[in-house]
Structure to design on (694 residues):
């Protein structure tokens, strides 16, 4: 109810609507997953490996991008848990504090300006390679009411690169377990003066959440000056020289003088505070633990390092070297939600950023409070329920047991400008991670060939979750006398079979060979001698891989064909008996019901637009499809064909968007789009030309 109340209270804030805005879960998923309380602002995305995320997304006039009811479904399915489980109730930026090292200015970009309203930027194809969601906005600007719809939230699936790489032999060359991962990225861009900020949250297929704020745009402009209180001052200790010296002319007492001076772009902080409202498995009680590490002395070959976990029973702030040490970290757990190993599910905060210890509000690395509706911003709070307050005030006024934790994560970055920042400025990031800790009993992409590896090697699980050997290269039949030669069947020729390649699943496998003639087993063993009975037959071998106490798996070779094998499917026999039933007499009674009036279907208008008509091989491109009838959007499905590959999309308000990879061969292609039609609208198709050019 906590999250639902927030959404209702934010009724004036516009919600997004577009192609990836999902309908409610269907079929079996609907039975196990109750719908999110956000209607048409829901995003549901199934990633390449089968993992899935869902959440609510909206743009707040001040906070910008807000994500709520964030839930994850692992690819491994029911062994971990069926359906989705809640991770966070809400995630958003709560303040961006920018003090300049010259000491002459300090900004609170969120509460003074905001990341919504006119500051929200449009996500065109140059920015968003996925699907840009429409955001409806209503705000006052320069004394006039502005109502607009802009593509303000980008949703896309991005490659993560290598996620795991493991071989079962110590020197390499053994069975390889490797994963290439992907992640759902949800982002928005806001412009505050000369700086432009991207809020970008990625949700990977292993359950990790990366929260980032990237700064780009331009360095705040300035003029050469003798004053230290300027964006380009004269103090080399508070800035960095950009370009060479400049001429500065001054007039004093009627006398004009000109001199050459070196000015320095002012260094400054980007103190970003994110508000993370935890909701592990929707538990009514959440627990915060702080883990600290210290050395009680030396071991035989290295210092001993011991960790101590402390349950934090009340609201607190934690400053490095005061309240925590170099290795400290925090996690939020649900004591009543256990994984298959009986461990409490939790998420850990990984924050390796710098805090600004010169400003009290920005000294803590992390602050924890109980959720309270009026505590919206980390400083300079705008909510009338607790106006002007900061995280320090929230902690001081929180006298309850810490059971509904909100983490205020301080992600500091000190920016010393450099020559390469001009212009535009390359994006620089400040990030932290929310990492699953015991949320799963094993990594949520575990395969059957590794699922028994859970704990010490001596306790490999052969009972409740045994590993299944996995064949990666099937067995091969060869001539035993000459393994490199092609097999030429002949009576008396000895064939031999390889075992193929198997993922050994941490156990020693044994192999058994069974030979087949036209699908019938005829012999066992690694070798087989052809006989006259094998003429005009198909010869194959099946290899079974097994280990004591583990499941057995089987792989079959390609066939060796000798002559003309018999047809495996018999020709159906013709019917020989005549039909005895008499022919049904015709109906003589006239039809009394009137002929139904035919349905007249309207003709649709099918519009197709490519983001780029000419692209390089292998580059991403985007096709936008709009289908209307009588000037109104229609429902149904469209099929988009590019280089023989067909994708079917569901229209949402008459629109569908597809991001695709251009073919690698340089030539002209037709991007074909077909609308399947509906009960009231005719089918239609069209195409546009795409040129792939190196």
């Amino acid at each position: 109810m906590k999250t639902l109340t927030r959404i209702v209270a934010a009724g004036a804030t516009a919600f997004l609507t577009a192609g990836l805005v999902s309908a409610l879960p269907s079929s079996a998923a609907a039975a196990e997953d109750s719908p999110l309380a956000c209607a048409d602002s829901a995003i549901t995305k199934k990633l390449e490996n089968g993992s899935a995320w869902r959440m609510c997304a909206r743009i707040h006039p001040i906070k910008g991008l807000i994500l709520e009811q964030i839930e994850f479904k692992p690819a491994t399915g029911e062994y971990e848990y069926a359906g989705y489980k809640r991770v966070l109730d809400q995630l958003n930026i709560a303040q961006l504090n920018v003090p300049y090292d010259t000491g002459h200015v300090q900004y609170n970009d969120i509460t003074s300006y905001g990341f919504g309203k006119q500051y929200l930027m449009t996500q065109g194809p140059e920015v968003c390679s996925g699907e840009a969601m429409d955001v409806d906005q209503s705000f006052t600007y320069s004394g006039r009411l502005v109502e607009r719809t802009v593509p303000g939230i980008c949703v896309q699936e991005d490659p993560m690169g290598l996620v795991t790489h493991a071989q079962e032999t110590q020197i390499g060359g053994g069975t390889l377990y490797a994963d290439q991962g992907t992640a759902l990225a949800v982002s928005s861009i806001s412009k505050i003066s000369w700086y432009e900020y991207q809020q970008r949250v990625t949700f990977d297929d292993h359950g990790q959440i990366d929260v980032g704020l990237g700064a780009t745009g331009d360095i705040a402009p300035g003029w050469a000056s003798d004053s230290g209180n300027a964006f380009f001052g004269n103090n080399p200790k508070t800035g960095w020289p950009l370009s060479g010296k400049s001429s500065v002319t001054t007039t004093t007492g009627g006398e004009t003088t000109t001199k050459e001076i070196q000015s320095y772009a002012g260094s400054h902080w980007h103190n970003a505070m994110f508000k993370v409202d935890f909701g592990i498995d929707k538990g009514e009680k959440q627990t915060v633990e702080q883990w600290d590490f210290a050395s009680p002395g030396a071991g035989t070959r290295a210092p001993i390092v011991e960790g101590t976990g402390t349950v934090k029973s009340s609201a607190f702030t934690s400053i490095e070297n005061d309240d925590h040490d170099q290795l400290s970290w925090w996690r939020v757990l649900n004591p009543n939600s256990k994984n298959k190993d009986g461990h409490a599910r939790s998420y850990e905060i990984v924050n390796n950023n710098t805090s600004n210890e010169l400003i009290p509000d920005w000294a803590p690395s992390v602050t924890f409070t109980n959720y309270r509706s009026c505590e919206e911003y980390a400083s300079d709070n705008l909510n009338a329920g607790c106006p002007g307050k900061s995280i320090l005030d929230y902690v001081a006024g929180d006298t309850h047991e810490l059971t509904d934790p909100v983490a205020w994560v301080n992600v500091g970055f000190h920016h010393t400008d450099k020559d390469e920042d001009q212009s535009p400025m390359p994006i620089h990031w400040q990030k932290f991670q929310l990492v699953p800790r015991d949320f799963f009993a094993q990594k949520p992409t575990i395969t059957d060939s590794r699922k028994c590896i859970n704990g010490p090697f001596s306790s490999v699980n052969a009972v409740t979750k045994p590993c299944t050997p996995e064949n990666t290269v099937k067995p091969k039949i060869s001539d035993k006398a000459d393994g490199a030669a092609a097999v030429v069947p002949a009576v008396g020729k000895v064939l031999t079979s390889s075992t193929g390649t198997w993922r050994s699943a941490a156990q020693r496998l044994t192999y058994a060979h069974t030979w087949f003639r036209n699908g019938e087993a005829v012999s066992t063993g690694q070798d087989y001698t052809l006989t006259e009975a094998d003429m005009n037959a198909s010869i194959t071998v099946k290899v079974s891989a097994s280990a004591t106490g583990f499941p057995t798996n089987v792989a079959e070779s390609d066939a060796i064909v000798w002559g003309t094998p018999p047809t495996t499917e018999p020709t159906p026999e013709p019917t020989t008996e005549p039909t005895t039933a008499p022919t049904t007499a015709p109906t003589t009674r006239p039809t009394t019901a009137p002929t139904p009036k035919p349905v007249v279907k309207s003709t649709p208008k099918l519009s197709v637009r490519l983001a780029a008509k000419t692209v390089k091989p292998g580059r991403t491109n985007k096709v936008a499809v709009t289908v209307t009838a009588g000037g109104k959007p229609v429902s149904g499905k469209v099929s988009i064909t590019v280089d023989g590959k067909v994708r079917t999309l569901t229209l949402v308000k008459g629109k569908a968007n597809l991001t695709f990879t251009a073919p690698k061969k340089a030539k002209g292609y037709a991007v074909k789009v077909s609308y399947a039609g509906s009960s009231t609208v005719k089918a239609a198709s069209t195409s546009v030309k795409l040129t792939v050019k190196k």
In short: The first strand starts at residue 16 and ends at 17. Residues 482 and 495 are 10 Å apart (CA to CA). Residues 1-31 have pLDDT under 50 and may be disordered.
